[in-house]
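Thread: Modeling a multi-component assembly for a lab meeting

Hi all, long-time lurker, first post. My supervisor asked me to bring a structural picture of a complex we are working on to next week's group meeting, and I have zero experience with this. I have the sequence lines for every component (856 residues in total). Could someone generate the structure of the whole assembly? Inputs are pasted exactly as I received them:
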Amino acid sequence: MSNPFREDLVSRNRPEPCTVVIFGATGDLTHRKLIPALYNLAVDGELPTGVNIIGFARREKADEEFRKGLEELNRKVSRNGHDEEVWNPFIHSVTYHQSEFSDDAGYASLAKRLDEIDAERGGKGNRLFYIASAPEFFDDILLHLKKAGLNEAKPGCWARVIVEKPFGTDLKTAQHLNHVVNQTFNESDTYRIDHYLGKETAQNLMVLRFANAIFEPLWNSKYISHIQITCAENLGMEGGRGGYYEKSGALRDMVQNHLLQLLSLVAMEPPTDLSADGVRDEKVKVIRSLRQWDTPEKVAENVVRAQYTAGHVDGNPVPGYREEDRVSASSETEAYVAVRLLIDTWRWSGVPFYIRMGKRLPKKSTEISVHFKDAPSVLFGALPGGVPGGNVLVIRIQPDEGISLRMVSKIPGTSLRLEPVKMDFHYATSFGKGSPEAYERLILDAMAGDATLFARRDEVEEAWRFIDHIERAWHESDNKPPMAEFVAGSWGPREADEMIQKDGNAWRRL
Amino acid sequence: MSSNFPKSCPELGIEVPISEIELELRKLWEQDEARTNASLMNLAVYSEKPGSLLENSRIINSLTRDNACRAILVEINREEPASLRAWITAHCHLAQGQKSVCCEQISFRLTGRVTGRFRNTVFSHLNSDLPLVFWWQGELSEVFTERLASVIDRLIIDSSLWSQPQISFARILEALKANPSLVVQDLAWTRCWQFRVGIASLFDDTVAQSALEGIDQVRIKHSPSHCNTALQIMAWLAVQAGWKHQGNLTFESKTGLKIHAQIESCGDSAPLGMVELSSGKVNVRVSHEKNSVHLLREIEAGDYHVTSLSPADPEASPDLVAQQLSRGGKNSLFIKILPMFLDLLK
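Re: Modeling a multi-component assembly
Sure thing. I ran the full set together rather than chain by chain. Output:
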């Protein structure tokens, strides 16, 4: 039966009451992101009435001890502060369930607990399983959910799963994970979370492209010279991150998921509608159309990997990558990667896309820059200094979300001199209020059954197909492309500059 | 009648000749290169209350923290001899602790016969291409004409301040007929936003949803000055659930069930204190204790009792306007319930 009071109330799908089971509930993600996100939804009145949360993890803990730990972190990180009046009823809906991830009895008792909650709730049995554990437990958790029958929704209800990245470490493991996931849950009930897609500017990409008539006619190889996607981090391997990073590297950690997702939003064709599959059908076509760098020679020509050597960041001396905590002294893991991509479609024929991601760069910044071709030089080309560069549209993802457009303008005065000027739009300046955290939006979408901002199986696998060629050339071929070096605190290795210069382009100075 | 308005009014900024407003504004910006001028809309605030300019300037200072705009404040006094004075200033706030972001404000004080001069004064100082949000404070007077409404994108009113809401709403309807794209936002309606969200959320619950067809009683409690809000939420319930009004706050459901509504005015209530829908066995209730920042959402069905808190709607008009500005939208739901509300007003 539909709820008539919902009609016309808000322009989003309706999140439904459910029980959220978080696997890996004692981990950092649960404490820093998931519980604060759920709490902030409660503060804003967005969390459906009657949501219950069960934290599932291996450590022995009583409910009270678990709640206390959540409260400590929430006080520190919550976007809306910490209001006891909201927190107290909210935290009483949170309970702890201790079990090994491979213990049948633990899932049987979880099923019983869920049934009890359903009974208390008068039969409504929606369940949202959030797998926030370390990736090595994904298989166990999914298989046991199936064994306990928890993947089956009761009539009129749903059972959904949110899977955190990494979605595998290569195509083979991703296919395996997808196989296990899809053996347990339907693809339509599977939500692969990529928090970049929950960010306001990422969501605004489609609006910018398809709700403004001035951009789309220019959004093709006729007018665009090239596109750059940059994800710069000034942090290194602090806090023991080296252990994880050594196993992944920049390409797998960021490019395979976040940056290829951004690329697909920038390059996709207009979807037929705004449904989840309408959008994702177009996104996956972009990834599928990437020209494959499938030999070591092509990888050497189009991809640069590098590690940083000791240098300075924010005025402080920092060690080189191989001297970082939990990093091997002979590590072959890249802390920087720059990739030149070509999309073999009519729209993007001949337009290079460049992605670069690096640790220990001068500052933290993620942005997409669209570089337009120069205007014909017949009029102003002969001026001293010529025309200073073309138009650049910059979409800043973080930290200072916004959009800017660089144009050429005449300097006031009696002589004719041209200089670039920038039109700048800052979310914070124009809209004031802080945007919800990406996790808030995404969890609510999963409760509402809207998968638009989640990665689909074929997107993940196509992305791995592209990435695998590069990884194989780096680690398995006979003529491995070399590992370049750059000084920490600089904008990456010389080799990356040379790669982009071969096309007559240069990295944008951030 | 002589004016009590002060000769000098530093809170409103620099007094400038009408013909030089734009020039003086440019000078203001040239004084400090570090400032960023931000504007998403023209926000005109109209009042016929003496002394409102100063009060509204303070409100704009607060509103511009989250809503970048060019503010145009107008105070009218038709009893005084004809005159027109203008002031300019900027409200600046730190954005993310770094950049000073400023919004312009132009204040006008018009006295005497104003109708023609008023329109010209406001319209000649709009920021081009940006929408015009017009906040009309108090009763709709003769200054509110179809011509005026035809250039407004979003009209903000507060019908709870109207002594004759039927007459004023009739004028709003005429304005809507002349300008169908006009978005009308009644703060009385905004005041019950969280109540509506709360009720909708409670009826997501299967227990409440299964009781919907059996609802035969509605109780609404409000404070004496917020009867319109109570009637509007009643109209919303009826329109959304498909109930027909049969007079005297009695409705008939789609299945022919009689529904009796009781709308109660209480001196110690929050503007909207409670909305309760009951069938024989199930009570669905959203309530608001006076001065509390939370609403309480409840479902009672025998042993089954679900409660949760949600944020309460702000009560003060400036806070409601801020909320309205950040939400935007076409407000089509208000237009949908308007005929039923007007019927209930009778």
